[in-house]
Amino acid sequence: MPIKTMPHPKLKRDYKGKRVRTTKDVSNAFWQVPAWSLATVTEQSPKGSYLTFDPCDCCGISARISNVPANFMEFVIAYSDPT
């Protein structure tokens, strides 16, 4: 299904529950996730967003990375192509 980008919500509290695609590599002590990976914003804090990534195709594990700044992600929406 094609993905379309959309503008960032005006309020950070509206980030929760939205689908995002990372624009840069993100990592923490356990995970390193490449750019252009899809995730869901599960929580929002003053330090950044908590992202839960889609499960891996080979192992089924989904990474969770905290404190991701807004400029490391773009908001996306899936849409059906009418053609």
Comma- or semicolon-separated keywords:
0% helix; two-stranded antiparallel sheet; mainly beta
Please give a structural write-up.
This protein is mostly beta strands and 83 residues long. The chain has one domain: SH3 type barrels (Roll), CATH 2.30.30. It is built from no helices and eight strands. The strands form two sheets. A six-stranded antiparallel sheet has the order 1-8-2-5-6-7, with no helix packed on it.
Topology:
Layout: E1 3-6, E2 19-22, E3 26-27, E4 32-33, E5 38-45, E6 48-53, E7 64-68, E8 73-78
Antiparallel strand pairs: 1-8, 2-5, 2-8, 3-4, 5-6, 6-7
The CATH class assignment is Mainly Beta
Number of helices: 0
- Proportion of strand residues: 35-45%
Beginning-to-end CA distance, first to last residue: 12 Å
Low-confidence stretches: none
Give the mean pLDDT: 90
CATH topology: SH3 type barrels
Question: Quick recap of the structure?
Answer:
The protein has 83 residues and is an all-beta fold.
